[in-house]
Design goal:
single chain, 196 residues, mainly alpha, Chorismate Mutase Domain, subunit A, 9 helices, globular
Length: 196
Amino acid sequence: MRLRGFLVGLMAASTLVAPPLSTPPLSAAAPAPSLSGLTDAVAGRLALADAVAASKWASGAAIDDPAREQVVLDTVSQLALDRDLDPAYVRNVFRDQIEASKTVQRGLFALWELPGQTAPPATPDLGPVRAAINEFNVAIVDELAASRDVVTTLRCPPELAVSSARSAAGAGFDPLHVAALAQAGESVCAVSTGSS
């Protein structure tokens, strides 16, 4: 239910505030929403789900990878401690990132299974993609730390919706990716980020 409400808000915000894809970027006179750095990093990470899906399709690997997921969660927990963030909060945020990525992967697999559809060519080696994901993981934790004065307030849900809509438009996301971006943001405003 929470995802559906956030998705409705995100779609509404995207129709109200997101610039069309053909317009130039925001000018310096128009400040970006306060969570735009965070949602841009989340969108960047999510965009890599396409390459992950293509690689897994090529290798026949399963979408679910519990061992890799545990490595990600353990790593971001340590990053959280290093930035005086609550590790449980950051783990929740990254569980959403992981599930959102799998939503995209499942959606693409379903598409590629349709008659006449094919997956893009890909290498089974996920090493370079995982390195890029790791960089986005660090950026997301850094943005959570930088945004702690927003994510712990009632300003967070509307600002997250606006920032997510702008990031989705900037990335040229289709409905599958827009829905996954909403899923990725579910826990951002959920709890306090203080470690005490």
